[in-house]
Design goal:
302 residues; alpha/beta; 8-stranded parallel β-barrel; two-stranded parallel sheet; binds flavin mononucleotide
Length: 302
């Protein structure tokens, strides 16, 4: 059911547990099979879809893009787009499909995304982003959130990102996922854009200090439990991307440490559950290699 939620009742104090551990949206990685696998390892993690563009959703095979297993909850749909009407239509579809959150990508620097005038280049247009977020908030009852960078190209001014976040905060948005480095729009590949611009956790922490009642999730370069525990006192949560892709067992270690009351599956139990899941998927004509691809990292170095 859809209902209007212009003002979201989320604050850092009541929502932080929901975002404490997030697995990042990653194109060609975090498909529904990968998310199912991650859920087996991390019962409380918040899982994000790959970025899905409004064009793909509204003019393509929505079912293929949106279907997910109900065990994936809580699961967030990440959208790529910059037109309020298309974003509203896509957010409504996502909410109807049962997603727990709609996230707008304001951090992807790829040329393809720049041509579509969305992703990281939206950071130069905070008023447009605010318009999009407000329109989506008015259309769906689940939280509408933003994933963004700290700045664009060589601009490392804190005022730039503070004003970006502030403009969106004024719409009622209360969850910001900060990939704590700049995006370089010309001259760096997406891969280099995840490695070359320096990480600036202190700048991200300033945002948390300036917007204390917003949920601020830190992303970028977090690999181990130790990394995450070192930054958590200054943030409400962490988002990990490449590390659970390369070594999924980190999700089980984080879950053990942060939710000791939960039973976290052993590796053997995870594999057993996946065998059952793979059987169902094969029966539904999904190729086995796609279902088991996310598993490969579990056997790294063995
Ligand atoms: C293969 C790959 C695909 C990615 N696709 C997306 C995406 O669809 N949307 C997005 O916001 N970020 C995307 N990212 C960026 C990650 O979400 C994350 O911000 C980045 O990898 C930094 O986090 P990490 O250091 O934990 O990997 C992608 C990253 C990788 C490695």
């Amino acid at each position: 059911m859809l209902s209007s939620a212009a003002v979201q009742p989320l604050t850092a104090s009541n929502a932080s547990d929901h975002w404490r551990l997030c697995v990042a949206p990653m194109i060609d990685v975090t498909d529904r099979h990968c998310r199912y696998f991650h859920r087996l390892l991390a019962p409380r993690a918040r899982l994000y879809t790959e970025m899905i563009t409004t064009g793909a959703l509204l003019h393509g095979d929505a079912q293929r893009h949106l279907d997910f297993n109900r065990q994936e909850h809580p699961v967030a749909l990440q959208l790529g787009g910059s037109e309020p009407d298309a974003l509203v239509a896509s957010a409504k579809l996502g909410a109807q499909w049962g997603y727990d959150e709609i996230n707008l990508n304001c951090g992807c620097p790829s040329e393809r995304v720049q041509k579509g005038a969305f992703g990281a280049c939206l950071m130069a247009e905070p008023k447009l982003v605010a318009e999009c977020i407000k329109a989506m908030q008015d259309a769906v009852s689940v939280p509408v959130t933003v994933k963004h960078r700290l700045g664009l190209d060589k601009n490392e001014s804190y005022d730039f990102v503070r004003d970006f976040v502030g403009t969106i905060y004024d719409t009622g948005c209360r969850v910001f996922i900060i990939h704590a480095r700049n995006a370089v729009l010309k001259g760096l590949s997406p891969k280099d854009n995840r490695e070359v611009p320096p990480l600036r956790y202190d700048e991200a922490a300033r945002l948390k200090r300036d917007f204390p009642d917003a949920v601020m999730v830190l992303n970028g370069g977090l690999t181990t439990l130790g990394d995450c525990e070192a930054v958590l006192p200054r943030f409400d949560g962490v988002m990990l991307g490449r590390s659970p892709w390369h070594d999924p067992s980190v999700l089980a270690r984080l879950s053990h440490a942060w939710w000791p009351q939960l039973t976290v599956k052993t590796e053997a139990e995870v594999i057993e559950a996946l065998v059952g899941y793979a059987g169902e998927q094969i029966a539904a004509k999904v190729p086995l290699r796609i279902v088991v691809r996310p598993l490969l990292g579990l056997f790294n170095g063995r």
